[in-house]
Amino acid sequence: MDLLRSLPLGLYLEQPQTWLHKLDPRVKVVWLMSFLTTYILANNLWRVLLVILLITITLIARIPRRVWQQQMGWLLILCFFVLLIAAISPDGYGINYQPRLPSTESAQQVFSGVSADKKDHKESHIAQPKSAKSYKYILFSQGPFTVTRRSFDLGVSLSTILFTVIYSTNLYLLTTAPEEITAGMEDLMQPLKKLKVPVTEITLMLTLSLRFIPLVLEEFQNLIRSVMTRAINWKKLGFKGTVKVWLIVAERLLENLLLRAEQMANAMVVRGFTSPNEHRVQWHELRLTRRDAFAIGILILFWGIRLAIGTQLP
């Protein structure tokens, strides 16, 4: 079991260097925020297109298959089950509608005096819309399972949003080094300094948190291996014994993480990091290239298509 290799969520891929790695981090931040905001008030067609676009970018970037295959596969399975559960769930329209026309028996009693010729003449002038026969609100009904248009649309919306939020963020972290993320965020947040916002402190904490993710996975992995090597008979322990063992593991994990955090803080103090403003570190040199200009042009086209076909009609 190797979490750092089998499921590298939030980890930076150093090799190979793809064209996504070479983009400016500020441009990638804007692209990420676009993915996280365009699905707001969007129709399901646009949300499905976002999923297809993310998968296409992954394939075009030529990211190694071993990196994205397992995490994308598990995420797609999760989204499929979300779609399935939401589709077969009640749609919230549990209303018994009263029919607009009376029943057949009462209609015969009321209109018994009307001749059949007049009825036929009247009905011949009523034009039925063509779409009335093809439209079906209930898409599938078999036993206790019923899929309506509203429940299916809700399932598509939830599953696509879940995939877009998780995978777009993971793809950004996969192709952007923590130092580049820090430099890009600090440059974009420079106007906030006029409002006396501690931009440098925030970016420093962001860098430390990104560096801490692999340490958390490593500690968790080591504890799981230590439990597996002891060959514990879980059946003899029972429910209480199993809960007690995992509580001990969780307590040990918290102690190890706090110890790692203390070691990191001591290392910064020894190196003289008493204040971020006094000990500035140039994380990454920011410079826009032609590749970044092309990405910005595609981003403008991306938003144009979103406004043209992606807006949800009331």
Automatic annotation (TrEMBL):
Domain of life, per lineage: Bacteria
Record membrane topology: Multi-pass membrane protein
Chief location bin: membrane
Entry keyword set: Membrane, Transmembrane, Transmembrane helix
Bilayer-crossing regions: 29-60, 72-89, 154-174, 293-313
Compartment(s) where it occurs, according to its Swiss-Prot or TrEMBL record: Membrane
Pfam families tied to this protein: CbiQ
One GO cellular component, as annotated: plasma membrane
Entry-linked PANTHER family: PROTEIN ABCI12, CHLOROPLASTIC
The protein's name: CbiQ family ECF transporter T component
Originating organism: Aetokthonos hydrillicola Thurmond2011
